[in-house]
Request: fold
Amino acid sequence: MPMPETKYEHGYRYVPFITLSLTEPKPRIWITLSGCNFKCKGCFSIARDTVGEPMTVDGLINWVEKSNRAYNGNTLLEEAVITGGEPTLDRDFLMDLVLNLKMRIEVKHITLSTNGYLLDRKSVMELKDIGLDVVKLDIKAYNESTHQWYTGMSNRPVLKAARYLWESKLDFRVETVLMPEIVDVEEIERIASFLAQIDPGIKYKVIKFAPGEAREKVTRRPSDNEIQLAVNSASKYLRNVAGGKACVQQFASPESREEEAKKWVRVYPDMKTETIIAKPGGFEVS
Ligand code: SF4
Reply:
């Protein structure tokens, strides 16, 4: 198995910003750790590259605490989503972060958003034991050569991670981006069939490819009808299938209509802030 490319110093992760929700009744935060072991052609995250400031867990927790106090007063955080980039690049950093979010600032729920490549059985169980609640696993493609072409890495460890997550009984869901002619309806069906062999109750979401946000416009945006077809195909195997857009706060834009929008504040390492607005996260099909 090829070793992932890692661009972090031990004990540090580069962090470009953290993002707090302002419209949710219960405060939530997204912690974006930069650097990734995949090189997805359609990646829409600036955090695929090493961007931001190097932070220790202690420095990051202090920053989260200070930012939450500034915007939410004494209200404890309901949820922290650890995302990227890829949060699992430095296992010890991730463990320490989860532990500190739970113990030091008493975050109620902690979600990990990951490509799954570095998740083994042991690390999944350890993360659960120290307080991780939810995992969102991306399966980019079932076909190995498509996965290699799109991400630069094998999908074998990712498929194994799906089984480890199920075995751990963590609350987990899987997402795939529908990319016409690359990861199409048939490929979504193959992923759903694979997941159903583990458990037909696994939650699965089909996401729309958004060429406007992608690094390489490898294909076009699928229509709502194509998303519905993919959802219908996956639903032949799985009981909980939805269709929609990716993480909405990534797509904040000034053109979003205020009355439909959600608001977040993005806090940078120098404590400069930016309020961002985004439309709700697409339609749900169940
Ligand atoms: S795994 Fe996620 S962050 Fe990494 S390159 Fe792929 S889409 Fe980007």
